[in-house]
Amino acid sequence: MVLAEPLSYKNFRWIVQDPEYLNGKLAIRGTRLPVTLILQCLGEAMTLDEIGQTYTPIPREAIQEIMLVASEAIAQQRGCLTSTSQPQSLSLE
To answer: How far apart (Å, rounded) are the C-alpha atoms in residues 85 and 93?
Structure first.
């Protein structure tokens, strides 16, 4: 059986959300890693290399998108969301 490609979340390249994939949780394309897990790892001061060694390698661009999604969720919860449906370039370096 061939599995369909998960649906992109908004216009993000690396973030997917599909009811058939991890029960609809936001996840990293090409992995079975939920966005919340990566945020937790970053909150525990894990580096991208450590995350890759512990779970599976993920691209730096995915981290940038995760941070955008997280900031959007916080802003939305506080009622101060400005439209960020388009991914924007961030520099984490």
So the answer is: 23
Q: Give whole-number Cα distances, 76 to 14, 42, 72, 80, in Å.
A: 21, 21, 6, 6
DSSP letter for 28, please.
E
Torsional class of 24: left (φ above 0), alpha (ψ -120 to 50), beta (otherwise) = left
Q: Fold for domain 15-78?
A: Arc Repressor Mutant, subunit A (1.10.10)
* pTM for this prediction: 0.78
70-87 tens-digit pLDDT: 999 888 887 765 555 555
Higher pLDDT, 20 or 29: 29
Q: How far is CA 29 from CA 65, 76, 91, in A?
A: 11, 23, 20
Residue with tokens 């995350």: 51
Taking the domains of the chain in order of start, what are their residue ranges? 15-78
